[in-house]
Each structure stands twice: as C-alpha cells, then as structure tokens.
Design a protein that fits this description.
- The chain is mainly beta.
- The protein folds into two domains: 41 residues; 120 residues, Immunoglobulin-like, CATH 2.60.40.
- The protein has one helix and eleven strands; from the N terminus they run E-E-H-E-E-E-E-E-E-E-E-E.
- The protein has a five-stranded antiparallel beta sheet with strand order 3-4-10-6-8, with no helix packed on it.
- The longest helix has 27 residues.
- The N terminus is likely disordered.
Length: 195
C-alpha cells in the first residue's frame, strides 16, 4: 500500500487563510503615513515656525514711546567774594573817607521782565551806610549805586532770558562822625523776582 506524501502548510503569524487566499491581520493601506504625507507635514510646520519668528522680529525691531518734557521757569543768582571794609581815615574838617570793596555775581534766568533786589538782615546803625552797585547783564538795566536797608531795594531791572557770570558787584561803606567805632556785620540777600 502506497503512502501519500504530506507537506505541512505554515501560515505566517497574524494571517489567516480564506479559502485559497491569505490576508494580513488588521492590514490597512492607510494605517501608516506615506513618505509624501510626512514631508508635507514637515514643510507646514517649518512655514509656521518661520512666520512666528518673523512676527517676533518685526515686533522687536520697531518701538515707539511718548516723551513729555516740562521746562520750568528758572531764576538763579550767586555772589562771589569775601567783603571786608575798614573806615580808618579822614581829611581834617571832612567826613571820614568811605571804604570800598568789589565782588562778582552770576545769574541765569529764562523768565521775562525780572529784577534783582537786595535787602539787609537788619538796619544799619546810626551814622553808617552801605551801598551796592550791580552791573546789568545783557538787555537789563542797572539802578546804579543804591543804599541798602532792611527793606528790599531794586538794583537791576528788565531782566529777560539771559545768563551772565563775572558781573561786577561793588560795595561802599560810608560813615559820618556820628558812627560809633565798632565792628558791624550785615548779611545782604539778593533775590530775583518779577519786575
């Protein structure tokens, strides 16, 4: 009796036999992205990144800000020098000889129609007088030699938008025989105000 030869048939794992055909288990032609689809997604992401970076660059490259500047009225004055005067001589039959001293002053004013006034901290004693003369800056007017007191006296007027330094400030002390021999000190305050 003849023996029929038997050849076993093996099917790949995950496949099943359907009649005389075999199919892959869960096989799907669209389950895995193709190379073309992957490249399209890559270029889309690249374009988005480029657009985002370009927008950020544009925002950082141009900026604006409002700046407000207020120019206030400025009126400042400064005096320079140490003043010491001595009255110690006279011509027989005449009043004592006056004493003089010189200083300088500087000022800056962006205002219009201003003036400089001077005032002593207290009145001068009997028989003794103090005078001051201020040279005027450009465009202003000097009042000449002015006797100072404990009330404000104008020395320079018509000051308008000017600056100056090293301007002359001269003092003169005048005594009569009624002045008691003494050391007298007074503070002179200079102020810039409206004319």
């Amino acid at each position: 009796m003849g023996v029929l030869g038997y050849v076993p048939t093996f099917w790949p794992v995950g496949c099943k036999r359907l009649g005389n055909k075999q199919t892959a288990h869960n096989a799907s032609p669209t389950s895995t992205p193709t190379h073309t689809t992957t490249m399209k997604r890559f270029f889309a992401l690249a374009l988005i990144a480029l657009a985002t970076s370009s927008a950020a660059f544009a925002q950082a490259n141009v900026a604006s800000q409002q700046v407000a500047i207020n120019v206030a009225e400025i009126n400042v004055i400064a005096v320079n020098g140490t003043i010491n005067m001595t009255i110690n001589s006279a011509t027989a039959g005449q009043a004592p000889d006056p004493a003089t001293a010189n200083a300088t002053y500087a000022l800056t004013s962006n205002g219009t129609d201003k003036k400089i006034s001077a005032e002593l901290d207290s009145a001068m004693p009997t028989g003794l007088s103090l005078f001051a003369t201020m040279a005027a800056p450009t465009g202003a007017t000097s009042a000449g030699k002015v006797q100072l007191s404990d009330s404000a006296s104008d020395l320079v007027t018509s000051i308008t938008q000017v600056r100056g330094s090293g301007l002359s400030l001269a003092y003169e002390a005048v005594a009569t025989v009624d002045a008691t021999p003494d050391n007298v000190t007074r503070t002179v305050t200079y102020t810039i105000t409206n004319n």
